[in-house]
Amino acid sequence: MSDTITPDVSDRICKHMNDDHSNAIVLYAQVFGNVPETETAIMESIDPEGMNLSVKVKGENRPIRVKFDHVLKDSEDAHHTLISMVKKARNPQN
């Protein structure tokens, strides 16, 4: 059974993404956040409607919001959605 996306679950997801998938977060910002000049990015929080990122552009940090294409049901849905977004970002034709 998957967890609903509470602040604790958000923190867990963000820690995992920041520690293990920082390149994916940059892709989220560049492609879905419409900030192609993103140099680095940190996932600050995630909720059922989107994620809040802190991105570095030209040496300056700024916040951006990336909305999902649907409302997430739970942490498992978040997992599959984040993977799908990386695949789309890497191969936009599919």
Automatic annotation (TrEMBL):
What InterPro entries does this protein map onto?
A: DUF2470, Haem_oxidase_HugZ-like_sf
Give the SUPFAM superfamilies listed for this entry. Answer: FMN-binding split barrel
UniProt domain DUF2470: residue ranges: 10-85
* Protein name (record): DUF2470 domain-containing protein
Q: Which domain of life is it from?
A: Bacteria
